[in-house]
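Sample pair:
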Amino acid sequence: MNFAFSVLAKILKLGYQPDTIMLTMLMKGLCLSDNVNKALQFHDIVIAHGYRLNVVSYGTLINGLCKIKQTRAAIKLFRKIEWKVIKPNVVMYNVIIDSLCKYKLVNEALDLHSEMVVRGISPDIFTYNSLMYGFCFVGRLKEATDLLSDMVMKNIDPDVYTFNTLVDAFFKDGRVKEAKSLLAVMIKAAVKPDVVTYNSLMDGYCLVNEVSKGKHVFSTMPQMGVTPDVHSYSIIIKGLCELKMVDEAMNLLKEMHRKSMIPNTVTYNSLIDGLCKSGRISNAWKLLDEMHDRGQPADVITYTSLFDALCKNKQLDEATALLKKIEDQGIQPDVYTYSILIQGLCNNGRLESAKEVFRHFFIKGYHPNVWLCNAMIKGLCKEHLFDEALALKTKMDDSGCTPDAITFHILISALFENNEKKKSHRLLREMIARGL
């Protein structure tokens, strides 16, 4: 960009005037090099010097703003354009509609769509695809399918992206029958399914525990001229692991290696979780080493599976050491990770260690959730430290982490079993008053 602006300086020095195409190109270059704010500043300078910009210039700036998640600023710029001089086009509207839909602002996107129509600008396939994605994103599937009908009425041919968006949304919502009907419509419309379509189909079957059907889709993909990708393998591997069919899942990993496919973090996480839940912790550690060797970064999900397995296997010192190790690596454990460790320590009579981890959690500046507090309350009750348990319940209310029915159940049961009937009855009345 420095060289590009040097050329502009040379042009001006020679007494030539830059044209709109040249100025637009410079703004586009700034946007592509992640300097959208500088592009806007350059726009202001250009306008101040009396140069004219066109619809492509403003489309470039609006697109740049949307790409850096500044949709509000994009709309503000859009509203500042002199429409008497520059006529908006479908591309400009599409960019903003797409960005709004990605942030679930579907109603605002619909308003822009209506504005387009009023201005005499016809929505195209990209407009409909963006709106359809937005509707699916917020779970408004009826309106998404209505858009498909609207497209057909206006002679806009749906493409593979249109159908993929709808099929994926219906499967994720557990509506297998409707998803399969959409696939039939897709094939009837002569739109060829691609790897994304098949992945959605497999994912949908796995979500409703029909992994065998997912496997069938996976095995027939090559016959349909579609090559499974890493995501395809990850979906089936996850489905198999959830059914504890870990050996079959491991065979698929070996198949990926044979095909020189690089498994991603999701693939490894599914396998590590499956191995851990099957009690094969040593195999899970080996897979973690393989992840590192292949340059795939382990994340908090990877380690949470290992924490869970170590705690269930009563390897609590190893679990505590692992917490320190991942924090030293810059991986931030989540509340779920801490909850598993605290519950494991409490269940095995190591309350002081659990309290230390609980304190460490707050020192790190994390905010507890009800599950974490419940684990600690249960541990305190187990050691008959009822006053501390009740004090923690009060702290939950004060910190905005509202106790739930499980919190009250733990406390009431423990107090009642230890003849603290007045306290247990008081808590029971409070629980009823809260509607739990």
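The first helix runs from residue 2 to 13.
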